[in-house]
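Run log, item B.
One chain of 385 residues. Sequence copied directly from the ordering sheet:
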Amino acid sequence: MEEKRYAEAIPPLRRSAELSQKPAQAYYKMATAERNLHQMDAAQRDMKVFLTLSKNPDPGPYPLQNFFEQVGHRGELSAAQRKEADVGELEAEAKLHPDSPRSLYQLAEAYLKVNRVGDAKQAILQLDQISGGDFRTLLGEGVLLARFRLYQEAIQHFEAAIAANPSSDEAYYNLAYARFQTGEYAKALESLKQVSAESQKDGAFLALAGDIYGRMGRTPEAIQNLRTAYLASPGNDQYCFSLALAELRSGNPEAARETLQRGLTRVPDSGILYWGMGITSVLQNDPNQAEASLRKAVDLSPSREGILMTLGIFYYEAGQIENAKQVLQRYREVFPEGSMNVDKMRATLDAAAIEKKSSNKLAGLSADARREFYELAANLAVESR
């Protein structure tokens, strides 16, 4: 900047903005450099980000006098009560600083954690108004909404972020992901192809492309993309898991098992790889191995809803209704605000218990039951990706 080499200044400034906990100054300098290069659209975009960030008040010193009292009180609260207490504190903060983007973002996130979706949307609307539609805020809001599975609202924010910054690979990638989650596979692929050629070499791009191709029935392309991503990052268990699912979809459970075994040699404590091994064992009609793998997957990844539900579906398809009910009860306890309709599933299990007697001995699943199990498990894998 000092030497007026503005084009050379922009890349390190952009990297600084990504890494710094206080990126406002970097965005201001970028806008200055872009203005000197007559890149007026980019300068206006980054100046908007600077103006939004500058509205956040600097945090003051931590009030230590009541710290231990507060910690002791919080320790007596349940998880749900702590979330509600957080909401109350953030509401007070937002009232104190009504024009603070950070306060409104944190408040929206807290509302979503307690399922107050309407209040969260209102906080995001206020954030949109005070941020002036800068792309960084729009992108962050979209990611937040997608994290809580509000994909249609997330898509709107990602599209607005792209309108504000058409060169943002991150916005296109996130838009593709949200469209993938809503089942708009052709649109998801179209969005993903807008990513720059350099970013298309990234493992995350290849993995998402592979997942999209897989859901579109373009299995060879899915396997090719996922294998490339996995070979580039053999320690990434998510890539390995997705590749195995694509191989299962192609009707090749032997290849899927080999892929998962290679993955487990690198990541022996991966819950999702044991999840994949359980799904593979079901399709190979090995119920005992399927049960053992799925139970180990649950133990290794107790916070993943999809794995626990896959175990429940397995027991249901295998006719072990009582075991399925136990899994459902555990799901209710572990995920009190989970995405599954527990009452409806309980009614289905009660009806199944009347129709057929539950067996204590595991038996293989019929071909139709194995296909149904795979589709349900694959859908759960998509939702928890």
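Observations after the first pass:
- Residues 79-96 form the longest helix (18 residues).
- Residues 6-53 form one domain.
Flagged for discussion on Thursday.
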